[in-house]
Specification:
The chain is mostly helical.
Length: 74
């Protein structure tokens, strides 16, 4: 398994504002249900946002999502 390190000064990927918001919630340790409730969405919509984020960033795990959010200063 190879790890890609991202510096804190990395340029933010092209994430939609709601994708960024969902990423911040998940990186803060919230569940999909908590994120959905906070954002006024269904759990399925949050899941769709996070699937799109993973595809855009080429990552696969919640840990990687969290690392990316931290690296981007979210």
């Amino acid at each position: 398994m190879s790890l890609t390190l991202v510096t804190p000064h990395a340029e933010a990927p092209a994430l939609a504002p709601r994708e960024q918001e969902a990423l911040r919630h998940i990186a803060a340790g919230r569940t999909y249900v908590q994120t959905a409730t906070s954002m006024g969405l269904s759990k399925h919509t949050v899941d769709a946002y996070l699937r799109r984020i993973r595809a855009k960033l080429g990552i696969h795990t919640t840990a990687e999502l969290t690392r990316m959010a931290i690296a981007l200063g979210m």
